[in-house]
Amino acid sequence: MTESRSPWFKLSRNPAVVLSAGILSVAALAAIFGPDLLPASAGEVTRHSFLPPSRQHFFGTDLNGRDLFYRVLLGARISMLVGVTGALVSFAVGIIYGMIAGYVGGQADSIMMRLVDMLYAIPRLIFLLVLISALDPVLRRIMAAHGLGGLIGYSKIFILIFCLGLTEWLTMARIIRGQILSLKSQQFVLAARSIGQSHFNIIFQHLLPNLLGLALVYLTLTVPAVILDESFLSFLGVGVQAPLASWGLLLGDAAQVINPIKGYWWLLVFPVIAMSLTLLALNFLGDGLRDALDPRQRK
Amino acid sequence: MLRFIAKRTVGLVVILFCVVTITFFLVRLMPGGPFDRERKLPEHIEKQLLAKYKLDGPLFEQYVNYLGDLLHGDLRLSTKYRSRSVNEILADSLPVSGLLGGIAFCLATFGGVVLGSLAAAKQHTWVDRSAMLAALFAVSLPSFVLGPLLVLVFAISWPVFPVGGWGNLQSLVLPSITLAAPYAAYIARLTRSSMLEVLTQDYIRTARAKGLSNTRVIYKHALRVAILPVVSFLGPLAANLLTGSIVVESIFSIPGTGGFFVNSVLNRDGFLLAGVVIVYCSLLVVFNLVVDLLYGLLDRRISLYD
């Protein structure tokens, strides 16, 4: 009985999914509006470094006397922005690549998929580190040359979105290709082909709508992966840089100043809570969506 | 068998060639030479430096020369750690990273397989549920979160282990746990679901009907088949441990290759960076080949010959 109900009904009955959706909505609202609702002075460098949490500073202050609550919200904004847009880029690349490989088939398919296998074998983040530090100065120069000087501070974010999007698409391409292969031989596609529809029409009118559910599931699962990658890079000092913030950067800063003599626990605990809650919620939501929309993949 | 190995070795060489080429040009694309300082160097000195580090001449010529040096096993000089060669730096730091990675690798595979089989054997009990809940959290916690948290708890609040450093057994505990935990959790989940599937098969029923003990059925008969998905995860596991080790080494200030790698990116130390990337990739690609061979040996249903 339950199998025949709509996916949305199944989702709304899954407490983990409902809770995750709630947490994510709160987190998203806080990330979008939070930093602007706080007084503008919160992000400024002051003399009051390492103040413990208090009523003025809910999460305490950091090395440079900046309010940590403000930094965590700003970090949420940037981490989520990079996560969502990076995932969208990878979504586009993966879906196009997978569709071409699956639809064309034959030799082209096996070459394209062999390439994906090869790329899987290469440590992605290590290349990202090199790629980002090579491209960032180039983009800065381009921005300066075209009168976009105001954007220079954000060049790292653009580069991160671009590079992460271009490296996270492998799984998506594999899944889409597999799906296309099984759809391609089904009757409705044969029917469309036999009445002489163009390849373009078959792909966009018949195949794509059938893929979208599955692709959306993997889009939700890519967002936390991109957020993690971004944090990894920022933690190592290659990603987002102050005065901007991302969760990885905050954790990296915290890991540097924490030592046995000075236990500045708040620098670590609050970013960890914000980041883990968001990532857990995204993973739960993705798993729930997968169970609801794609029962075959259930583990 | 031999044909399979030969075919894969050719593929391996192609991948490594691409890695070397891409890395070389990316590194040379980075603006700002390695000798840019606040005060500009006199021209003849800069020229000499460039010649010493073989950075003069047209780009393509440099590339061909670099390929030639690589074939002779020479990874060239580091431009940051003056007068030390990349070979020396790697010889000092790779054993450290290798030890840490090796411990984490064993911890992740053995811990994960044992936990996962245990959870599958006791399905629907509190053992299963708590193990899987713990695994879910561990999978979601990246090493740069887990590491500082472990330091905060086990080195600062309750000082049982050192905050960082290298040299004694105690200093190995926290880093290897940090590195291994997420993957142990992932392998536990993998083993559990694969084990549950295997346990429904006929030959398991036969084994039980023979009157074998539960432990024997699970660890001798079922595990042999259930472990296959874990074996195919070993390749990605090695890649993940490698990237993970960079973060873990920086958290616990361990003198491994990861630290040199990050510094080489930040300092634009081209040859060190290229050397590390090339060594990392070669290790991984060879490891993947070994895993594939192992897989063929373990699973007789898969033939490598075609």
Question: What descriptive keywords fit this protein?
Answer:
heterodimer, A: 299 residues, mainly alpha, 0% strand, B: 306 residues, 12 helices
What is the global morphology of chain A? globular
Assign the CATH topology of the domain at 95-268 in chain B. MetI-like fold
Helix content of chain B: over 70%
Rough shape of chain B? flat
How do the strands and helices of this protein lay out in sequence?
The complex is a heterodimer of chains A (299) and B (306).
Chain A: H1 7-12, H2 15-37, H3 68-104, H4 106-121, H5 124-145, H6 155-167, H7 170-184, H8 187-194, H9 199-235, H10 247-257, H11 265-293
Chain B: H1 2-29, H2 43-52, H3 59-71, H4 86-121, H5 126-140, H6 143-157, H7 170-198, H8 202-209, H9 214-226, H10 228-251, H11 257-267, H12 270-298
Structural description of this entry:
The complex is a heterodimer of chains A (299) and B (306). With 299 residues, chain A is an all-alpha fold. In chain A, 73% of the residues lie in helices and 0% in strands. The longest helix of chain A has 37 residues. Chain B has a domain of 174 residues: MetI-like fold. In chain B, helix 1 packs antiparallel against helix 12. The longest helix of chain B has 36 residues. The radius of gyration of chain B is 24 Å and the shape is flat. The chains are: A mainly alpha (299), B mainly alpha (306). At the A-B interface, helix 4, helix 5, helix 9, helix 10 and helix 11 of A face helix 1, helix 5, helix 6, helix 10 and helix 11 of B.
Short description:
Chain A has helices at residues 7-12, 15-37, 68-104, 106-121, 124-145, 155-167, 170-184, 187-194, 199-235, 247-257, 265-293. By secondary structure, chain A is mostly helical.
